[in-house]
Amino acid sequence: MPKVSGPYAPGTPCWVDLMVPDQQAALDFYRDLFGWQGEVGPPETGGYALCSLNGQPVAGIMAAMNPDGSTPDPMPPTVWTTYLATADLDATEKKSASNGGQVMVPGMDVMTLGRMAVASDPTGAVFGLWQAKDFPGAGIVNEPGAIIWNELNTSDTDAATSYYSKTLGITAAAMEGADGYFALNVDGRTVGGMQALSGIDGLPPGTPSHWLTYFAVDDTDSTVDALIRAGGTVLKPPFDMMAGRMAVVQDPQGGAFAIIKATGPEAA
Q1: What are phi and psi of 110, to 5 degrees?
Q2: How far apart are CA 208 and CA 205, in angstroms?
Q3: How far apart are CA 186 and CA 168, in angstroms?
Q4: Could you give the angle at the alpha carbon of 3 between the alpha carbons of 32 and 91, nearest 5°?
Q5: What pLDDT, in 10s, does the model give residues 181-233?
Q6: Strand 244-250 relative to strand 256-262, pairing
Q7: pTM of whole model > 0.90?
Q8: What's the burial of 250, exposed, middle or buried (CB within 10 Å: 0-12/13-18/19+)?
């Protein structure tokens, strides 16, 4: 399913974006790494850059700034945010609160494109919510340079399972052949994964619960080499696993993400 033409089912990861201190540097880095095209957007959108791949929207990159347009001090961490689709943002916000989540950025209109909010689950993992209007989300997935997987790494899989099920209708099921790993499902379709932080090798102590974005690549090792040359950092060197060959990396400004040359089932 490389191209997405219709709306995403509620609960499905539908978009990712990156907030960075230096927006242009990030645009240049991901252009060279993944072949994305994008430029700083107009003032009315806060300069938000819509990046495209093969003519289809694939991710967003924005400069870190305060609501009044000033530069934050201290600067927030550079992070990729996973957005989950919802048919009713206001109702989902209320469910989130009643199920132990917190609303970090209340629902707002984004011109005629849709409505967005940012929330955190009871284990502290931050994610976005997107109610589509004119813009459904990523127009291309599961091919090199595009999103291929979204993964919740959490301090409490039971609490996370309950929260996402009650809030967004996402169910979790143990994934066959992957001890301690869970498939996240929407309407019987696997749309992402979940695992306990305690089961991940090599994580720095105190790593908080988080959503991790995976991008597909043609060659994991050569992409890692290119990332290093461009000033990025390798958090987990390339290794083989049941779904393919992957690595976990950071861009030069500290944004963490995974890359994978997939050989097994994938979803976005």
Answers
A1: -115, 85
A2: 9
A3: 9
A4: 100
A5: 999 999 999 999 999 999 888 888 889 999 999 999 999 999 999 999 999 99
A6: antiparallel
A7: yes
A8: middle
